[in-house]
Amino acid sequence: MKRRSFIKGSAAMGAAAGVSGSKGWAVPGSDKIELEGKKCATNLLAACPYCGVGCGTIIQTKNGKITNILPDKDHPTNKGLQCIKGLTSAEAIYVNRLTKPLIRKDMSDPHTGHISKTKGSYDPKHFREATWEEADELITDKIVELVQEYGGNSIGLYGSGQLPVEGQYLENLFMKGVLGSNTIEANARMCMTSAVTGYFKALGSDTPPTCYDDIEISDMICFWGHNARGSHPILYWRVADHKSKNDIPTLCVDPRRTGTVAGLEEINPENSTHFPTINGDISIHNAIAYAIMEKHPEAVDWNLLKNHTTGWETYVEEVKKDYRPEDVIDRTMIPAEEIYALAATWAEASIKGKKRGQGGVLAFWGIGYNQHLHGQHNTMSLINLMALTGNIGRPGCGPHSQTGQPNAMGERLTGGLTGRLPFNIGLDDDKHRAVMAEAWGVPKARLDAVASAANPGMAVGMMERALKGEVKAMFMIYATHIDLPDAYNLSRPAMTKMFTVSQEIYKDAPNNLYSDIILPAATWGEWVGGTYVQSERRFYVCDGTANPVKGCRPDMDMVIDKIKSIGEKLGLDPKKIAPYERKENGYYDPEEVFRDFLKASKGTDADLTGILEVEKETGKSPYQQIRDLRGIQWPAPTAAIAKAGGTKRRYMGQESYWPDKPYAEFRHPDGKLHIHMCRQDYSNYKEVTDELKKLGTDPNYFAIDHLDVLVKARDAGLTPELPDKDFLGKKIGTVPKDKFPFWWATGVVYEHFHTAKTIRAGTTKKLVPEMYVEMHPEDAAELGVKDGQWVKVITRRNNPNDKNNEAYIEARVSIGLDSVVKPARNTVPKGFLFSPWNLSVADSADPAKNRWLANGTTHRAFDPVSGQADFKKNACRIEPLS
Ligand SMILES: Nc1nc2c(c(=O)[nH]1)N[C@H]1C(S)=C(S)[C@@H](COP(=O)(O)OP(=O)(O)OC[C@H]3O[C@@H](n4cnc5c(=O)[nH]c(N)nc54)[C@H](O)[C@@H]3O)O[C@H]1N2
Ligand SMILES: Nc1nc2c(c(=O)[nH]1)N[C@H]1C(S)=C(S)[C@@H](COP(=O)(O)OP(=O)(O)OC[C@H]3O[C@@H](n4cnc5c(=O)[nH]c(N)nc54)[C@H](O)[C@@H]3O)O[C@H]1N2
Ligand code: SF4
Ligand SMILES: [Mo]
Questions:
Q1: The 4Fe-4S Mo/W bis-MGD-type domain covers which part of the protein (predicted)?
Q2: Nearest-atom index, ligand 3, CA of 49
Q3: The model scores a pTM over 0.90
Q4: What's the CA gap between 145 and 148, in Å, rounded?
Q5: Ligand 2 within 6 A of 476 CB?
Q6: Are 394 and 511 found together in one domain?
C-alpha cells in the first residue's frame, strides 16, 4: 500500500546514478542543454519575468530556442524601454538546469518521525534520478497518507508571485479544495501583504486605485521606502521624465540617500525632498497631516471626509493632539521646519489637482515601507493622509503600492494565501465559499472545514508549526526558503523535518538541499503560455516556446496532475475538479484554465467576465484580446469595458458597473473609506524588543505563541529589535559579543532580481558579483575599516552549524559613491548599514561554503495582521574577517 511504496521510493537504491554525473553539482553555465525539439513562432509576446512594473517584452527565438529579449515599443507601460535585468533575462534560462526528477535516498518521514541525515548536504550521491511517474506516485501516496492520518491542514505549500495566474489559481484549488488545507502561503507574504491588508482595512478591497498614466498628470510624487530607480526602473524613468518636463515636486522617504533620491535631486534640487527616517513613516504622515490642518486648512477635503469616510473625527482629533511636528522629532527624525515645508508643497499640489479635476499627490511605496511590524499601519496611515487631503478618487493622485514580483498581484487576486479565496474575498465568506466550491468542482463542506482550519503566523507561522510537528509536508513552488527570515533556526530545520517537495529549475538551488523530492520545472519563456498581472492591475499574456529543456514540465501542468491523482485518491472526481487534458504538444492549455478563472470571477470585485462576452461576440480568444490590447486591467465586468482595456482606475465613481452592488464608492458594505488612526509610541520599546530577542535565539520561543507581543509592537509602531547604540564608535573587534550597535537593512540592487536568475546570467553577475555592506565614512573610520575590506556582519540570531553559534554574512565594505565595490550608488546615514539580499547564494548555495546568506541572520518577528517580517531593521556588529 501507500506506506510500502513510500519506503520503496526512499530505500537506498545504491545502484542509482548520481544527480549530474560523477562531477557533482554542475557549475553554472557548464551544462549542455537539450530542448524538447518543438518548433515555435520567432517573436513571442510576454511580460518581463522580473519586477512588477510588467514591461512588455518580445522574446526572440531561433529553432524553438530563446535567443534574445527586446522591449516592446507598443506596450503602454514601458513604451520600448527596459532595464538591464529584463534585457538580459534570456541569459538565465539555459544554464544549470535540472532535467530529471530527483529523489533523496534517505527521505524524512514525518509519519515515523524519521529525519533525513542528508538534508543540507550538496552531495549528488544522496539523490537518485527518477521517472516522472515514479516521483508522482511517491508524492501522491505520501500526501494522501498524511492527509488521512493528520488532516489536510498538516500539508503546507509555499507558492509564488512569479508563477502565472493559471497555476496560482489551481494551487489554491489544490490546497483548499482538494487537500482541505489552509496552510498555503507565498513569497508575496514577505513582499507586500502590508499593502494588501492595509488596502482591505481602508478601502475594503486589495485594489491599487491608480495606474501608471497617473504619473504624467500628477502634481507631486512621493516614494515611501522605495528605491524605484533600482527596483522599478521603468517606473522611476517615467517619474523622472515627468519631473524633467513639468518640474513637479518629489519626496523620497528612505534612511539612505539612494540613486532615486540623487536622480531626482539632479533634475531639480529645489523641489526634491529627502526625509531620511528610520522607521518613522507613520509619525511623518501624522505630522504632515497636523501641519496641513494647522497651516493650510484650505487643503483639507472636508467633503470627502464627511461624506465618504468613517473614523475621520478620531483621526483629526488625535493628530491635532499628538502629532505636532516639533513634538515627534524623536520618531520622525525630521526637523519640524522640514515637515512644515513639505506640508506646504503637499497642500499646494492637492489644491492644484482638485482645481484641475486631475492630478494632486501620487504616492508610491515599496518594501522599505511594507516590511515592518507595523506594515499594515504604514499603508493605512498613508491612506489617511491621502484622504484628508482629497488625494483619492481622481485621476493623477492616490496611493499606489508597487508590487515586487511580476505576478504577485496575481497571487493576491487568486487568493493563494492563508484565509483567502480568489477575487479579493476572504475564506470566511460563506456565500463565496459556495461560489468557489461550485467553480472548483469540490464539495462546499471541504471549503467550510478549511475556513475553520488555522494557520497562525502565516508564512513564518507555518514554518514554526512545522518545527512543532504540526505541518508534516510542504510543497515549495517557484519560491525559495531563503527568502524567509531566520533560515538557520526556522525554514531549514523545518524543511529538514518535513517531507518536502520542490519544483525547481536549477540544479544548485538552495531548496534542493532540504527537499526529499525535486521536480524539474519549465520556466518563463518555455511555457505554453499564462498570464501575469502587474502593479496597475494589468493582465498580460506571457507566451512561450512550449519547447522547454528536455525533461522539464510547466508548474501548471504539475499542479493539474497533482489535483487529478491526489484528488481521486481523496474521493473527488478528477473530471470535475480538473477537466483538462494534455494537448498534442504534450502540455495542458493554460487558456482553458484562464477561461474557468474568468468565469468564476462573475459578480466579484474583480469581475472579468466581459472578456468572455467579447469572445462570444467576436470569437476572439481571451489571450488574443489581451495581446491585441497589450493588457487588460481588472475589473472588466462588461464587454464594453473589456474592449476598452479594462478599468484604468478605481473609486472614480464607476463602481455602478455592478448591477446589484452592495456598496457605493469604496468596497466596504457602507461604501466608505475607513480611516483608522495609527500611532507610534516608543515608551515601551526596550521591554517589547527584549521579549522579541528570544526569536531566533531561544529554540522554544515561537512567534505564534506570542502574537500578543507582536500586536503590542505593532500598535506602538516599533521595530523587532534595537541596536546597542552605546557601543557605536568602538573599534572593530572590540564590541562585546552580546552587543550589536548598528542598524542593518537588506534590500535590492538594480542589477539583480532576487536570488536565482540574475546571479546566473553572465552580464548581471559580472556587473555586481560580490556581497557588500554600505557604510557611512565616519562609522568606517571609527571602526578602523577601509573601503573594499571584507568583514563579518553578525546579528543576534543563532547558527547552530557555526562553531561560535553565530549568524553572520561576510561582505565587502562599500563607502560612498567612490567605493571600489560596485555598484556604489547609495550612501547610508551614520549608524545604518545596508546589504543586498540578492547575492545571498551568489557565492555558493552549499551551506559548507555559503557566506552571503542574508536570511541566515534576519529577525523573524512579523506584522501580526499582514505577516510581513522586517528585513530592514536588524541590529548587527561588525567584526574583522580573519
Ligand atoms: N533590481 C531589483 N528590482 C526588483 C527586485 C530585485 O530583486 N531586484 N525585486 C522586486 C521585488 S519582489 C520587490 S518587493 C521590490 C522591492 O523594491 P524596493 O521597495 O525599492 O526595495 P528595497 O531595496 O528592499 O527597499 C527600499 C528602501 O527602503 C528603505 N528603508 C529601510 N528602512 C526604511 C524605513 O524604516 N522607512 C522607509 N521609508 N524606508 C526604509 C531602504 O533603505 C531601501 O532603499 O523590487 C522589485 N524589483
Ligand atoms: N533579507 C531579505 N529577504 C527578503 C527580502 C528582503 O528585502 N530582505 N524581500 C522579500 C521579497 S520582497 C520577496 S518578493 C521574496 C522573494 O523571494 P523568492 O521569490 O522566493 O525568491 P527567488 O530568489 O526569486 O526564488 C525563486 C525560486 O524559484 C526558482 N525558479 C525560478 N524559475 C522557476 C520556475 O519557472 N519554476 C519553478 N518551480 N521554480 C523556479 C528559483 O531557482 C528560486 O529557487 O524575498 C523576500 N525576502
Ligand atoms: S525588471 Fe522591471 S523595470 Fe526592468 S525590464 Fe523587467 S519589468 Fe521592466
Ligand atoms: Mo517582493
A1: 41-97
A2: 6
A3: yes
A4: 5
A5: no
A6: no
